[in-house]
Specification:
By secondary structure, the chain is mainly β. 7% of the residues lie in helices and 47% in strands. Strand 3 (35-43) and strand 4 form a beta hairpin. 19% of the residues are buried.
């Protein structure tokens, strides 16, 4: 059996098809811009790594909306930005922790639909 938890982290899974989902981040009232388009880089039951062109604050509470119309997927996950890093291209990468754990069934559907790769995500 593989041990994906070698560095004390819970398993994260890479996105297999970056264009498979429409990802939108909704910020708390009063934060501008109110809605930010993002890319999902990896996903676990406990959080996600995102990339966006807009700076979000550490500890900022937000709603991550994942959509794929042809599958009827419209998932809204409340989370908190736990870390952020500006990339060389000026975009931002974020680590977000979900308020509630993502159900195993939902994660399984992401694999079955080819949205997630069975390969664990790399650190970074």
């Amino acid at each position: 059996m593989r041990n994906f938890n070698t560095q004390g982290r819970r398993p994260r899974h890479e996105v297999a098809d970056a264009g498979a989902l429409r990802v939108e981040v909704r910020r708390a009232p009063g934060e501008l811009p109110q809605t930010v388009a993002a890319d999902l880089l990896d996903l676990s039951r406990h959080g996600a790594r995102l990339r966006a062109g807009t700076a979000l604050g550490e500890q900022e509470t937000l709603t991550i909306c994942l959509r794929r119309v042809e599958l009827g997927l419209d998932l809204h996950l409340t989370g908190v930005v736990r870390w952020r890093k500006q990339d060389a291209d000026g975009r931002w990468s974020y680590g977000c922790e979900f308020k509630d754990e993502l159900p195993l069934e939902t994660l399984g559907e992401f694999f079955l639909c080819g949205i997630l790769s069975a390969r664990p995500a790399c650190s970074g």
